[in-house]
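Pair request: fold both.
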Amino acid sequence: MSNKITAAITAVGGYVPDFVLSNKELQKMVDTNDEWIQSRTGIKERRILKGEGRGVSEMCANAVNELLKKRGIGAEEIDMIIVGTITSDYVFPSASNLICDMVGAKNAWGFDLAAACSGFLYAYATGAQFIETGRYKKVIVVGADKMSSIIDYTDRSTCIIFGDGAAAVLLEPNTEGYGIQDFILRADGSGQKHLFQKAGGSKYPPTRETVEKREHFVYQEGQAVFKAAVKGMADVSEEMLVRNKLTGNDIQWLVPHQANKRIIDATAERMKLAPEKVMMNIEKYGNTTAATLPLLLWDYEKKLKKGDKLIFSSFGGGFTWGAIYTTWAY
């Protein structure tokens, strides 16, 4: 029993839209096929938030409400809500701002954090600081994206990959040593040219021309991103083990970003991890960007045991990447 406060996850909530977009459906929209998609990515289907005026905050609020119910607490007890997302409802106000209102978190404040697929990791490490300093008792970290809002469904290099979803974790102080043990986060803005959304920001505000040129959609150079992601995720996950004097045998679960099954396999291999220790749900949801890691926890929650050692690992546009070492608290 130490007096050191660590930030432990004490509850998980998640939400995925009802509408299922299967590979079979996609092959009617673009020149691709189920076999090709599955062999290259491991994806069978993804969820899409359909309907006018439905933004990412709606999915987040659903996830947060489930989390509050599971933990048996009221929204007014929440101190802070941090949202990792690149598809906020508006340029402003932030999704966090809207969610506080939607769930009734009257005493909370927060912000959105944009790090693409590493959004949840960045937000998780950030939220932990407010717990570790002793300032706050209950911080909710959400990872969510409505990728269908920025995907070009005539571009077969991107539209097969992405889906929509949201999941949230509650961070609370722990003095028994459970929770976040270590994190390594990285950024390299020179990777921007390989994976970005060109228009819609202050550099290229929306004009008729940007819309006609389809510059408000995700642009990705698959090969360059794949190579950087394999190296980035594997390197940082291995560094985390070395830094904490751990081997693959000590780890119960790898919680890897769900971008591509081949990237996940390469990371597990570098860590010398058996396949059954790797969380995977890419076949059901595709790449939900900032939502992949907390959605894995949501899907695997019943298999997690108190004291389990988890390594979270991610790689995203920008480039951003990192790993977090956590011990499970319940």
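--- second member of the pair ---
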Amino acid sequence: MDVLTLGPLEVPPLAVGAMFWGTRVPGETAHDLLDRAVDRGARFVDTANNYAFWQPGAVGDESETCLGEWIASRGRDRIVLATKIGARPARPGAGTDDALGLSRQAILDQTADSLRRLRTDHVDLLYAHIDDPRVPMVETVGALQEVVERGWARAIAASNLTADRLAEALRAAGEGPRHVALQNRFTFLPPAPGTDFGRQVLLDEAVQDACQAHDVAMVGYSTLLEGAYTRADRPLPEAYRQPGSDEALRTLAAVAAETGLDAGQAVLSWLAHRPARVIPVIGPSRPDQLDSAIAAVTTPMSAAAVAALDARSRRLGW
């Protein structure tokens, strides 16, 4: 499997998302999945300090706690571990609109709590999960840099930032540690113009240009649209239906047939081979889903096929 560089980190071309581990995915199943992923080289693990608070009976500790149990049993050095802070609800029953946020003290407190749940003294990558315009960017970035100085994280990153806010974060870093990655919503089909995803920010053309200009690695979530590319029982979300989307899906199907992949795998392979690479976060709950994703990012895709998918995707809005 290829190795990509994120600042001081080396990661494979996909991240194993643990959003529902410890809630919808039982702990033992999750641990077996992570064993399988690591054995196959998929050792970049993605979680957050609020996963998955919206599930029945959950509070947001579950994913990190589940991973912490695996780390205590298997060892810390087998994975490249990323978590996120800032979007945890400030009180039971609240949502991300009432989050703990990204003030200096909130960052330090949340990071310490995450390390306790993860049973480790450091994470490899610490994301600011959602933008917090209530706090000056220089304070947020300064606190993230302090986390690195304390040895609690090897590198810092952000999620759900616009191009302008990413540029502001990079300026605020000065000569200190800066964001090495940005994780935003991205897939092959762009959503219809004007679609509102709330706190979720798209990896649109402006954001991609900003990342490439400043050597910030791009990470994408919701890349498979919860199986809509492949599963007959998962219709394409209405937000992704617009003039030209059916034609784009026909192009995707043709490329998938050419490469011996299904349509969802073709999306992952495209992400791994396009000139502006995007690391997808995949959320497996079964071994076959994990194996499918690993096969996808390790299956070659011709330059012509990549260009054809790029052209269709850009024509619709990316």
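Observation on the second member. The chain has a mean pLDDT of 97.
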